[in-house]
Design brief:
about 450 residues; alpha/beta; 7-stranded mixed β-sheet; 4-stranded antiparallel β-sheet; about 20% strand
Amino acid sequence: MKREYIKTDVVIVGSGVAGLFAALCIPNYKEVLVITKEKLDECDSFLAQGGVCVLKDVSDFTCYFEDTMKAGHFENDPEAVRVMIESSPEIIQTLIDLGVKFDVGGDGKYDYTREGAHRQNRILHHKDETGKEITENLLAISKTRKNITFVTRTTMIDFIERDNVCYGIVCEDEYGEMGAIIAHDVILATGGIGGLFKNSTNYSHITGDAFALSLKHGVELKDMNYIQIHPTTLYSKNEGRRFLISESVRGEGAILLNENGERFTDELQPRDVVTNAIVEEMKKFKTDHVYLTLPNMTSEEAAKRFPNIFEECRAEGYDITKDKVPVTPAQHYMMGGVKTDINGATSMKYLYAVGETACNGVHGKNRLASNSLLESLVFSKRAADVIASDKSKKDDNIPPVDLASYPEKAEREKEFRDIIMAEIKRKDEAFYDKWCNDED
């Protein structure tokens, strides 16, 4: 990146579902620049297995609303939940129109599944790679849009702001070259914080940069301690990202067993409840895992319904339908984040946040399974619609940027991590001690 300003109408930081859908929803007369920290397909959206929720008909609204609120311990914003649910049919139809394929049953109708804390089957899926199916389609279409440009292996290292007005971002490319991107609007879609945890289902480069910069610049955050631990990831003693075994496997009948081969919980409770039950069993037996098995399916059925999960388990020597597969909890999803309204607007003017980066109140204290993709799509479109309708003019007097003032990458990454972890500890010392305090 040359040491000069790049100017565009909108810069989007992140190439997951939220960032891509926002880019596609912005009118083609606006120039959009999407930057991403690694390769375009190295985002957590590609890893989303279970599915995407949808309001099948109005008769399910109250049940779906209550399920979402209950999973979130009723700390959700009811208006945000209402907006998400009511928007879901239109959003899903848009995906279908764009070419996204969802699984159908023998009758040719969509095969809706159910996961933990859902009382109805309302989840559409594409085998066990729903996120990949959606993200690949959005990415392919985005690449055909002349107003959308992608820059990979480029990291946001600062906001350009003055008097709580955002003018753009400072970036560093893979060669250590820094530069400034000036834009009328900035959309943060950087994902969560899994890269800060030793055990996480996230890619290691997803380290909450947007949160650290928000804390540095006084952008309001919300519920930074509301971090979801997924109950079932494939147990391994190796370092690196943990392989998620989707809740949809339990939705299709998988059960959890302790060291004595005993079933010890209702597998379809909310994720935090199941996680706590697993932790108690591990304490009781002084182990670092429990077991998962899917006895009501044949190997052939499981391989068809969950091809990715089935193959990953088989590569580790397990047939999930016959064997006890060792599983353990791992950090998975951020419910808190940069506080936004229901249109993605943050407390800083011209700065928006969408997807896992944003906290718009939909998830409350604990996300309901398969609401994440839907939430990302609904609210990224709303942010894009606001940006499209905004006719305001911004002061052209751009704040100066001193590129020589920024620390080296390693120092910067440590500073960002320390800032985020300190905020989590400030908000919830018990959670920090339980899940964060053993990090290196």
